[in-house]
Structures are given as C-alpha cells and as structure tokens.
Amino acid sequence: TRDIVIAPSILAANFARLGEEVAAIDAAGADWIHCDVMDGHFVPNISFGADVIKAVRPFTTKTFDVHLMIAPVDAYLEGFAKAGADIITIHAEAGPHLDSSLQAIRALGKKAGVSLCPSTPEGTIEYVLDRLDLVLVMTVNPGFGGQAFLECQIPKIRRIRAMIGDRPIRLQVDGGITCHNAAAVVEAGADTLVAGSALFGGNIAAEYATNIAGLRMA
Ligand code: DX5
Ligand code: ZN
C-alpha cells in the first residue's frame, strides 16, 4: 500500500486571514499545502500570485505544492520558485514546449509536475515522464473550487499509474475530491489527494482535523 498525501487547497480558505488558515490546516494534519494560481486567461477565474504565496510561506514548514493555471507560464516560474514553492505543476495545455518548461522547473531546484485537464489524454506526457516528479489528473475543469467530481477520469488515473511504472512520480487528483470518492481514486492508482471545499468547509478551523481525518479514513 502506498503512502497517501493529503494536500488541502487554500483556494477554499478564508483569504482575509490566509496565514492563520495555512497554520490551522497544517496543525490539522495536512501533508502538503496546495496553492491554486489562476490567471484569468488559461482559466476563467483569478485567484492569487507569487507575492501571496511568499507572504503565507512562513506560516508552515510543510511542502508548498503550487498548481499554476497560467498560460504562457515560463516567465513566471522563477517568481514562484523564489516565493517558496517546493513543487511547481504546470498545465500540459498551457505552453508550447512542455519539455522545456519542465526542464526549467528542475533547473530552479524544484520538483516538476504536469497537470492534465479532463479532456487531455494521458499520451501527452508519454515522452516527458522522466522529467516529472508529479502528475496531476484534474477531476474537474480547472478554474473553480466546489465543482462535481468527474467520474470519467478514473480510467485515466488507472492508465497513468501503469505508465508511471516504478518511477518515483506522485499521482495527484484535484477537483471535487470528498470522502465519497477518495477510495475509488486511490484504488485506481492516485496517491496524492487535493481537496478544497471538503476540507475547508465553512472555514471553521476547529473542524479541519476531523475533515482531514475523515478523508484519510475513507
Ligand atoms: C480547480 C483547482 C482545485 C480546486 C479544488 O481549478 O485546481 O484545486 O480548488 O477544490 P474542490 O476540492 O473544492 O474541488
Ligand atoms: Zn489545484
């Protein structure tokens, strides 16, 4: 059995007190902190950028897992590396040269991830597998938290697990993850679960530990 990483998405946190929210979700048992960066261009929503990540970085020592929904992304990689990202995930659909963007992330000393939108086939990453530390299968269309999980991504998770073989690559799922579908995505091969609304719920910090434990139990 693989070790499961739970990465709460701070997109669902209270932005007015983001530092405290990060500290609270860390104390509640988060393994990583998932940061959703949206540019209003690649996705139809704007969230936050490198300066916000830099500002909240001192509130935890946990891994900062930065999911960049930005196109074109190359000009921003260094800024997110300097802001304190540990893992930088870019979208396969976002740039003209995925291979070179992934090389740039590793050249900055960071772990490199690639994210696939629901309509993007897994073959897209076949020739970059050796440049990857993480593959993110989007189980909603990127842009918003709180959307319904797309069941049709389960076979893709299964196929990517087979493609990964014995490479040390984490297989992450993101979008609509709850205690009702966690077992199914893990059974298909996911080992890293992002969840926003299911964990941050009504932004009541006293409930975060119960929410994380519930997802882990599931
Ligand atoms: C969607 C983001 C997700 C999302 C997760 O574009 O990448 O990380 O915020 O939120 P929930 O768990 O609410 O779907
Ligand atoms: Zn995300």
TrEMBL record:
Its cofactor is Mn(2+); a divalent metal cation; Fe(2+); Co(2+). The active site is at 36 (proton acceptor), 174 (proton donor). GO terms for biological process: pentose catabolic process; pentose-phosphate shunt. Gene3D superfamilies: Aldolase class I. The keyword Manganese applies. PROSITE patterns: RIBUL_P_3_EPIMER_2 (PS01086). Its EC number is 5.1.3.1. One of its GO terms (cellular component) is cytoplasm. Binds 1 divalent metal cation per subunit. SUPFAM superfamilies: Ribulose-phoshate binding barrel (SSF51366). A divalent metal cation binds at residues 34, 36, 67, 174. Pathway: Carbohydrate degradation. Keywords: Carbohydrate metabolism, Cobalt, Isomerase, Manganese, Metal-binding, Zinc. GO terms for molecular function: D-ribulose-phosphate 3-epimerase activity; metal ion binding. Substrate binds at residues 9, 67, 143-146, 174-176, 196-197. It catalyses: D-ribulose 5-phosphate = D-xylulose 5-phosphate. It is an enzyme of class 5 (isomerase). Belongs to the ribulose-phosphate 3-epimerase family. Catalyzes the reversible epimerization of D-ribulose 5-phosphate to D-xylulose 5-phosphate. This is Ribulose-phosphate 3-epimerase. It comes from Bradyrhizobium zhengyangense.
